[in-house]
Amino acid sequence: MHISRPRSILLAGAVAVTLSATALPAAFAAPSSTAVISEVYGGGGNSGATLTRDFVELANAGSAAYDLSGFSVQYLPGTPSAGSLWQVSALTGSVAPGGRYLVAQAAGTGGTVALPTPDATGTVAMSATSGTVALVSGTTPLTCKTAADCAADTRIVDLVGYGSAVVREGSGPAAGASATASVARGTSLADTDNNAADLAAGAPTPVNAAGETSGGAGPGDPGNPTEPGTVRVHDIQGTTRVSPLNGQSVTGVPGIVTGVRTTGSRGFWIQDATPDADARTSEGVFVYTGSTAPSVAVGDSVLVSGKVDEYYPSTTTQSITEITAPRVTVLSSGNALPAPVVLDATSVPDAYVPSAGGGSVDALALDPATYALDLYESLEGARVQIADTRVTGATTAYDEVWVTVKPNENPTRRGGTLYSSYTDQNTGRIKVMSLDTTRPFPVANVGDELSGTTTGVMDYASFGGYNLQATELGTLTDHHLRREVTRKQRDKELAVATYNVENLDALDEQAKFDTLAAGVAVNLSSPDIVSLEEIQDDNGAVNDGTVGSEATLKRFTDAIVAAGGPQYAWRYIAPVDGKDGGEPGGNIRNVFLFNPERVDFVDRAGGDATTPVTAVKTKKGVTLSASPGRIAPTNDAWADSRKPLVGEFRFHGKPVFVIGNHFTSKGGDQPLHGRYQEPKRSSETKRVKQATEVNTFVTSLLAADKSARVITLGDLNDFAFSPTMDALTDGQVLKPLITTLPEEEQYSYVYEGNSQTLDHILTSPGVYRFDYDVVHINAEFADQASDHDPQIVRVDVNARD
Are 69 and 85 in contact (CB under 8 A)? Predict the structure, then answer.
């Protein structure tokens, strides 16, 4: 799924699952080119907060003063109830062109730093994590409680929904707000009426109309030093992941500006030109300027004063050492930059990260000669350089690409890097982004090369961990990766495929249907049976009780015919509304498509959303109690999760049982690059339960007929070496086919530069002769219809040797 990303990565994995964008609410009146809500912070005074009060900051992107007389700022809880009311804070005065206007809200019992003198004061106790704030022409409380109704209220000048707010502008609310993070607009103050895109999370940086910030520092503060202080960058970074000066103020820290970021997490990096002799202490650090555009340029020699802060993009990630609320003195410009550290196969260690027995590695002394993540941390904020790197993860929608500095590290057949065990991490992977917003980012596929040298600063983000923020980007060498086409099944072969079609519903654009359909008709060569994952109800994320998928499947099967495929029929069991997880309102489910010219579906009444299917022993073998049916749908293993779909088919007169699966996602697992080592895989517990239920059902089929042909397939959201697979194959009732391929071909999904397997096909002992293929058409490409590659198995149902 594509998860919203916090400020440190410029807004946007997947963990290894996929969510489609929510349907857009009604559009607000024209986006504002003058007064906007520039920052919202509801964590003031909370535990862990630095600031003592909540605040709302306004800004004026126009060229003339904006009069706020008679206006108000209003707040609504993120999920309003019938009794929820908009809370009003009246405003006076005006916002100067290019200026700010600060509205202080309720104070808490925590925090130590006061806001700068506010321009208006309210008493609203805003939520730190979810809410809606509106700038309103008037002081009468709003009454709207949906995005559509608020869009129709012409009194609203601007509106920001954050966290999980129901009322917001655009496709989703701004993400990442917390007790220590606000959501803020970029330095351009752009307003596209899409909160998720316009605002990013970061440390709160309130500014009032006088230009003052927290702690009293303002433009041209006469306290800015002109001589270096006693603290250097390596003193701030220290020899562990957390600064020994965390939370302390520093004055006159010298450095050369090595990179400037003007979007997302705004700020700049400095690096000390006079390093110490300790390889553990980085000489670079990020200076976070919040909603204020950096006023420095690469090559400036500066002195920076401010507060040292460890910013955690999420609770399980490592932190980014920063100087916040900075005051900057520019001493000179055009200075030479410190030489970059070269990262390559010889400089990056083979071990990944030290173990802390599942605890935090924050306090462990860095050992950059032994562990790759320790090396990267010892270079946090410093200049690094890579050269001629192979692309292992295609360019994403967020202009980022994964490369490896170790060309011989677990290569796949098509140019990726294979992820083959929990203990053998790929240490050469690194994500590359660009600080140059004037040039288009290269569109690369797996196996391409970022040729020449790429130079920039080492950063860290919640998605992907350490990354290179490039100031000089290499050139793309296209190695012309091609989408695969599998062979056509022979007449005696039953072809069964699995394909995750990424939240497909009838409201999707025709281009998505056409591309997915070509994958089935052309690349998979029209299998006899296709088990689909992530088919949604006919209106997708619209949450109105709809559960049917007939319109979605009609469009999909018609598109397959148009692409040269057969006219497929389909079978599914609609879920109980809101009970199968996935995107809220989407009612995700598994579906069987089948070609009735090649294979028969055995329809047997009795299957529904809550009735379990069972194996029925007969004189002629085993049958299903219902077809289609669901495996133990009321068992806790499937709570808020997709239930397996079971169908009985006949091919050349022989019964074949197909089980379509979509196990629970990896959402919530601690990241590989995080501060907890070894990372906990909390989602695994539920998948093991689900695998056990499927194993139990397959065992019951084989108990009734040991020669039963069973094909279990789908998006299992786990690896071939996982406990999930152990539970599914327990008793050797199922054979995972992915392990029958050469090792360099054992993958169907690419996540954070790792080629891995989440999708699987498994067969029972009654399937004697088969031909199995993973068909690579999506996961390795920047342009993809789904983030999963389909798989297919061709079975000779008459083989008995």
Answer: no
Q: Are 558 and 588 in contact (CB under 8 A)?
A: no
Contact (CB, 8 A) for 100 and 59: yes
- pLDDT single digits (tens) 168-206: 999 899 999 999 999 999 878 889 999 999 999 999 999
pLDDT score recorded for residue 224? 56
What is the C-alpha to C-alpha distance for residues 391 and 429, in angstroms, rounded to an integer? 9
pLDDT exceeding 70 applies to what percent of the chain?
Answer: 95
Closest by Cα among 236, 435, 235, 234 to 322: 236
Q: Of all helices (H) and strands (E), which one includes residue 618?
A: strand 615-618
| CA distance linking residue 124 with residue 106, whole number of Å | 5
pLDDT of residue 5: 37
> What single letter denotes the amino acid at residue 161?
G
Helix (H, G, I), strand (E, B) or coil at 315: coil
Q: What is the pLDDT of residues 76-103, one digit of tens each?
A: 999 998 889 999 999 999 998 888 999 9
Per-residue pLDDT band for 713 (boundaries 50, 70, 90) equals very high
Q: What is the mean pLDDT of residues 115-126?
A: 92
User: The whole model's pTM is what?
Assistant: 0.75
Whether residue 628 is preceded by a cis peptide bond, meaning omega within 30 degrees of 0, is: yes
* DSSP structural state of residue 798: T
Secondary structure (3-state) at 236: helix
Determine the Cα–Cα distance for residues 519 and 499; give it in Å rounded to an integer: 9
- Cα separation, 785 vs 662, in Å, equals 18
Instruction: Report which residue type is found at 598.
Output: R
| pLDDT given at position 64 | 87
- Verify cis geometry, omega within 30 degrees of 0, for the bond prior to 377: no
Distances (CA, A) of 702 to 114, 495, 705: 70, 22, 5
d(CA 397, CA 594): 34
φ, ψ dihedrals at 107, nearest 5°: -95, 150
Whole-number Å distance between alpha carbons of 253 and 267:
16
For 372-445, where are the alpha helices, taking DSSP H only? 372-378
- C-alpha distances in angstroms, 217 versus 57, 75, 115, 222? 17, 29, 11, 9
pLDDT at residue 4 greater than cutoff 70: no
Residue 602, burial from CB neighbour count under 10 angstroms (0-12, 13-18, 19+): middle
Contacts with 224 (C-beta within 8 Å, 6 or more apart), sequence order? 303, 305, 327, 328, 329
**Whether the predicted pLDDT of 563 surpasses 60:** yes
User: DSSP labels for 173-192?
Assistant: -B---BTTBEEEE-TT----
For 473-514, the pLDDT digits (tens) are: 999 999 999 999 999 999 999 999 999 999 999 999 999 999
Instruction: Tell me the pLDDT band of 27, cut-offs 50, 70 and 90.
Output: low
- 248-286 pLDDT tens trace: 989 999 999 999 999 888 999 999 999 999 999 999 999
Residue 332's contacts (CB-CB under 8 Å, 6 or more residues apart) are 300, 301
**Alpha-carbon torsion (212, 216, 221, 227), positive or negative:** negative
Q: pLDDT, tens digit, for every residue of 129-151?
A: 999 999 999 999 999 999 999 99
Angstrom distance (rounded) from CA 531 to CA 570: 10
List residues bridging with 310 in a β-sheet: 321
Burial class (CB in 10 A: 0-12, 13-18, 19+), 667: middle
- The CA–CA distances, whole Å, from 612 to 630, 644, 706, 725 equal 6, 10, 21, 23
The two three-digit tokens of residue 6, written as one number: 């916090």
Convert 603-632 to b/e letters by CB count within 10 Å (16 or more is b). ebeebebeebbbbeeeeeebbbbbbbbbbb
Q: How many CB atoms lie within 10 A of CB 499?
A: 31
